[in-house]
Amino acid sequence: MGRMVVVLLGVAASLQAYSHHSNSAYQVTEVISLTGTVQEWRWVNPHTWLFLVVEDENGGQQEWALEGRAPGILARAGWSPEAFQPGETVMVYGSPAKDGSAEAIIARVTKADGTILGNSPNYFSGAEAPAAPTVASTGTTPDFSGVYYPYRPNGGGGMGVGLASSSDGPPPPPTRSAPISDGSLGRLPHEPKLTPEYLARWEVIAESLTAGSYEYDNSHNCLPPGMPSMMAMPYGMEVMQNEQKITFFGEHLDALRRVYLDGREPSEAVLNDPTYAGYSTGRWEGDTLVVETVALTTKSYITGKSPHSDQMTVQERIRFTEPGILENSVTVHDPVALTEPWEVVYRYRKASYPDDELREFACAEGFTNPLNH
Predict the structure, then answer these.
(1) What H or E segment, with its residue span, contains residue 72?
(2) Which of 36, 210, 319, 357 is the most buried (most CB within 10 A)?
(3) By the 8 A CB rule, do 77 and 118 touch?
């Protein structure tokens, strides 16, 4: 018989937003479990969907629409287009929709044979990652070319937590399904320090997101994450380098930016035409790439949902700290929106074959209502 168990969770620590398609629609601090029969499994961008028929407490049947992460990141976590077949029984942990509908975002799935599918690959921690390849060099400067994934040597993991084996039985329930990115916890210590005007703007955004609205949710609307938040690269990135420029491609939302190394400067036309990635120029200081980014649209956010003005600039210092480990120290300046510069450090681990292939995100593929099935 199907069952639904609600687990209320306390949240003591903040989680960096990975910028998912529609986290704001779900109560991610609450986890439920659903056991039912698979009706349909959709392997589609920007998010997969599992449709489940669950028996309710009155003996009736209810169809649940369960949203999963994008195919690219789930494939690296062991999922596939054939992961589920109609008629099989599964148990799903997930967070319910804020509007009370029979929808949830998936944290973990357990199949009838005991197979557990978490919603994050294990590349977040270096403990079990493959050995990093030797770093190549082009002349006197490092060669950053390659595919990289987020690197957190002290853990911190992804969202598929609670997968460790236990001698006393199955692993414990996951502690969350997605990052808390709707502002419901208030301003957190690591977030940019906003001026009163921009703090008021953030409060409007947070109130909207907490209510489940997509009005300020760029990723839900298939818009790029923008700089500097795109450099978190939660789904991985590919770096392509030559003497004239370095190109960064992020799998999440197919984000793209170029850093010009040939001495050019942004023209007046560029400065008057701001974009999500902005306009980036770079130079080498020894083994460190120093990048300056300007012309950033105010439609994007500094990080999470922190707004910025048209005066924002982003500086980066990118270097290898050890073979295969790339570090990006970011400093954001905005004399209008920030009371002080905001700093963050992103780290990435270079991937080896066969894990050095990214998948297209193709956000618009599933932009129509997936519940009309």
Answers:
(1) helix 71-75
(2) 36
(3) yes
What's the token pair of residue 179? 């990052």
104-152 pLDDT per residue, tens: 999 999 999 999 999 888 765 444 444 445 555 555 789 999 999 999 8
Strands (E), 216-286: 237-241, 245-250, 255-260, 279-285
Q: CB neighbours of 234 closer than 8 A, spacing ≥ 6?
A: 18, 19, 73, 150, 252
Sign of the torsion formed by the C-alpha atoms of 14, 18, 19 and 20: negative
- Find out if CATH 3.10.20.740 is the number for domain 4-118+158-176: no
Residue at 191: amino acid letter: E
Measured CA to CA, the distance from residue 270 to residue 308 in angstroms comes to 19
Cβ(258)–Cβ(280) under 8 Å? yes
pLDDT, tens only, 219-235: 888 899 999 999 999 99
Q: Hey, where are the domains in the chain?
A: 4-118+158-176, 121-156+185-373
Which residues, including other chains, have CB under 8 Å from residue 332's CB and lie 6 or more apart? 192, 228, 302, 308, 312, 313, 314, 315, 338, 341, 342, 343
Is 234 buried (19+), middle (13-18) or exposed (0-12) by CB count in 10 A?
buried
Q: Is 155 helix (H, G, I), strand (E, B) or coil?
A: coil
Three-class secondary structure of residue 59 per DSSP: coil
Task: Tell whether omega for the bond before 81 is within 30 degrees of 0, i.e. cis.
Answer: no
Count of residues making up the chain: 373
Could you tell me which of 256, 259, 320, 255 has the C-alpha nearest to residue 291?
259
